[in-house]
Amino acid sequence: MSDNIENTNTENLKIPNHIAVVCDGNRRWAKEKGLPTFQGHFEGFQAARKLVRKAHEMGVHTVTLWVFSTENWNRSKEEVDYLMNLYIRHFDETLKEALENKTRVYHLGRKDRIPVKLKNKILDAEEKTKGFTKNVINIALDYGGHDDILRAIQKAIKDVLAGKIKPEELSEEVGKFNGKYSMPLFKNYLDTKDQPYPYPDLIIRTGGEQRLSGFLSWQLAYSEMYFPEVYLPAFTPEELIKAIEDFSGRDRRYGGNSQKSPGDYTNK
C-alpha cells in the first residue's frame, strides 16, 4: 500500500462483513472549491482507494464501490470519456494491490457497453484473482440494480427453456423442492453470485443524498443505511470509522426480534 494508515482499535466495534458505497459528490466537491469537474472525479477515485484499504485493514471482507451507474451514460461525452480513461489508467494499480493483498476482484454490471480496453483489464483482473478468498472488492461499473435483476431473470429463463430448472424451483432461500433436491437460488443469477457475503451489511452514500438510486436493489433488503454529508473526495478513513461506529450501535432485527437474519440473508 502506498498510504500509511494507522491501525484502528476495533475491539468494541461490530465490523460488517460487507460494506457497499455509493460514490457520490465528486462534482459538487469540485464546484464548491472552484475546481474542474474532472479534478473532483480524480480526488474521489483516490479517496475510494483509501476507503477500500482501510475497510480491509479493519476486517471488512467485502467492499463494493458503485463508481458508474447505467444512467451515468447520460452525462456529457467529455465527462464519460474522462471517467472511462481514469479507470483504464489506474486499473493496473488496482490489480497490483489486489494481488499483493490476495483480494478477489469482481465486476458488477454490464461489460458490453464499456470500452474494450477497460473490459479486457477487468476480465484479466477477475481471472488473476479468482483464487483469492481473503477479501473481495466489487467494482460496480455500468451497474444498475434493476438491470442486475433483469439480466438475472433472463439467465433464469434461458435455464428454464433449456430444461435445466422449472420456474417453481427458483427460491431466495436455501431449501428443498418437494423434499427432493435443493432449489436453485435466484441470487446465483445476480452479479454477486458465488460470493461469500453477497448482501451488504452497511450501505454508505457519500454526499448527503438520502436515496439509493437503485443500487443493489435485490441484495440490500436488510442493509443498514448511512448518509454522511461528506462528499466522496473528502471521505477519509476517519469518516469510514465513524460509519462503522454508527453501524455498531444499530439493532438489526431483520423484520423479527433478534439480530439473526432470516432465510438466505445471513451472509453466511
Kindly summarize this structure in a few lines:
With 268 residues, the protein is α/β, with parallel strands linked by helices. Helices cover 35% and strands 15% of the residues.
Structural summary, described in words:
Keywords: Magnesium, Metal-binding, Transferase. It comes from candidate division WWE3 bacterium RIFOXYA2_FULL_46_9. This is Isoprenyl transferase. Homodimer. By secondary structure, this protein is an alpha/beta fold. It has a domain of 179 residues: Undecaprenyl pyrophosphate synthetase, CATH 3.40.1180.10. The chain contains six helices and eight strands, in the order E-H-H-E-H-E-H-E-H-E-E-E-E-H. The chain has a six-stranded parallel sheet, sandwiched between helices. Strands 5-6 form a two-stranded antiparallel sheet. It is globular.
Distance between the termini: 29 Å
CATH architecture of the domain at 18-144 and 197-248: 3-Layer(aba) Sandwich
Q: Which class of the domain at 18-144 and 197-248 in CATH terms?
A: Alpha Beta
Q: Write the CATH fold name of the domain at 18-144 and 197-248.
A: Undecaprenyl pyrophosphate synthetase
Which secondary-structure class do the elements indicate?
alpha/beta
Helix share of residues? 25-40%
CATH superfamily of the domain at 18-144 and 197-248: Decaprenyl diphosphate synthase-like
Radius of gyration: 19 Å
Averaged pLDDT: 90
Strand order of the largest sheet: 3-4-2-1-7-8
Strand content: 5-15%
Low-confidence stretches: 1-5, 261-268
Say what oligomer this is: single chain
Largest sheet, in brief, is: 6 strands, parallel
Determine the number of helices (DSSP H or I, runs of at least 4 residues): 6
**Quick one: overall form?**
globular
Order of helices and strands: EHHEHEHEHEEEEH
